[in-house]
């Protein structure tokens, strides 16, 4: 009798073991199980292939190179739903992605093949604090709407120079704003982040609470948590001067020396900002120089910008406006829908560096890509001053750890835009070879700078490895503290991960 009971006990243990762990059968839920669980938990938040919302969300990106095939799209309305989803996802093996403004043009960085796409479309709140010193913004917002809202109060917050760019991606990578020479990275002006941690807990990170996490989120990307609200400092800036100059290609030398002297001299007036670019348009078989000019104030005739306004121009829209109006006007010129690729290059602010970048870029594009009839290729030179870097340090510092002693810099981004998928790989390869040639030349002439800006980087470029002050090690410690099981490192698709650096 006794032995029979023991025998049956053993048998049921074997059966139990084999039913919880049969060979070759996944012990964790499939993607569709996760979608179904979330659908039950939060009705009307899950969308499957074939539905209109699924298609709209999967194509709600700036560059079609990022459209993918998620198993389902989750569209939460609030942080509690995001937290609930994180708990479900943490119990599965499946990958997921989060999409803010969808402007990072790298496939798999904010979308997923086969996993769950979390789209923040409905988390689009914008709310000014009672004393108007800060504005709370949801991760579904884009900068243009934030500026429109703040304009009614004569206020601005630091964010993108293009209105269609998303709030979360830009801030988690730093963020270069027209106001950065006064106030640092856009992220240096975040007062608090509301974050869903890997445990599903919702915390607020600020200078007072979870200050290590607060610091990490100012440029550490998506390795730490999902941000469900950004509280941003506001500044008075009711009237500005802004617009875009177009300068003929005959002005190479004058244009480049003007850009270099702005980097050294003009930018000492922290209210002035420019985005000089080389713009190559295959359709018109033309190269033009352009520059956005910006001044935080009503008086447009400014010594800091006068070398630019003195250049011979094909056209100019520079004049009195507001940040919101300027941004709305330029957004019309860069609509979503064409394929896009970026890479970043970084130098000291000298004419020598600019000439090297200019010549290698222009001849590389002409020699290798000029048969692509709708190609647009550009390089934007972003002058980064000592004041910019120091402003961030004064506000508590950020993980970028850019060295102020070697400033000013130019952080440059090459952009390529085209429409036929068959050119994708060729453009990526040519861009990489142009970058390699530029870096080689800058290195040989002592003009290469270290920092590589996350938000302008292309896939495969080293970002965190070039953060200063030993900050990568600190980022890794903070990652281990807040996400010990590596959920956001291993299961949250794409982006640069501090653990991979
Ligand atoms: C036309 C154009 C203009 C630009 N202008 C500027 C500029 O003026 N200044 C500047 O600094 N940069 C600029 N950028 C670069 C821009 O900052 C980056 O592309 C940025 O990643 C875009 O943010 P997003 O929310 O739109 O990105 P998304 O593609 O939605 O996301 C980017 C990354 O952020 C992560 N992420 C998104 N939301 C969250 C969240 N809530 N929590 C955690 N992680 C999240 C995603 O995982 C992804 O890896 C520009 C880009 C373009 C295409
Ligand atoms: C304007 O150009 C002159 C001549 O090259 C230069 O000396 C000066 O520093 C420039 N000024 C600014 C503000 O860039
Ligand atoms: C190129 O990329 C930079 C940085 O990401 C952005 O500021 C700029 O608007 C882009 N230019 C075009 C023409 O898309």
Total number of distinct structural domains: 3
Share of β-strand residues? 15-25%
Q: Percent helix among the residues?
A: 25-40%
Q: What form results from the Cα inertia axes? A: globular
Report the CATH C-level class of the largest domain: Alpha Beta
How would you describe this structure in keywords?
alpha+beta, Uridine Diphospho-n-acetylenolpyruvylglucosamine Reductase, domain 3, Vanillyl-alcohol Oxidase, Chain A, domain 3, 16 helices, 19 strands, globular, disordered N terminus, binds 2-acetamido-2-deoxy-beta-D-glucopyranose
Give structural notes.
By secondary structure, this protein is an alpha+beta fold. The chain folds into 3 domains: 8-119, Uridine Diphospho-n-acetylenolpyruvylglucosamine Reductase, domain 3, CATH 3.30.465; 126-236 and 470-500, Uridine Diphospho-n-acetylenolpyruvylglucosamine Reductase, domain 3, CATH 3.30.465; 240-465, Vanillyl-alcohol Oxidase, Chain A, domain 3 (3-Layer(aba) Sandwich). Helix content is 33%, strand content 21%. It has 16 helices and 19 strands. The strands form 4 sheets. Strands 12, 13, 14, 15, 16, 17, 18 and 19 form an 8-stranded antiparallel sheet that branches. Strands 5-6-10-8-9 form a 5-stranded antiparallel sheet. It has a 4-stranded mixed sheet with strand order 1-2-4-3, sandwiched between helices. A hairpin with a 5-residue loop joins β8 (190-196) and β9 (202-206). The longest helix is centred in the C-terminal third of the chain and has 21 residues, at 424-444. It is globular and about 65 Å long. The termini are far apart. Mean pLDDT is 93; it is low at 1-26. Bound molecules: flavin-adenine dinucleotide and 2-acetamido-2-deoxy-beta-D-glucopyranose (NAG) (2 copies). The site of flavin-adenine dinucleotide has 31 residues, from β3, α6 and β10.
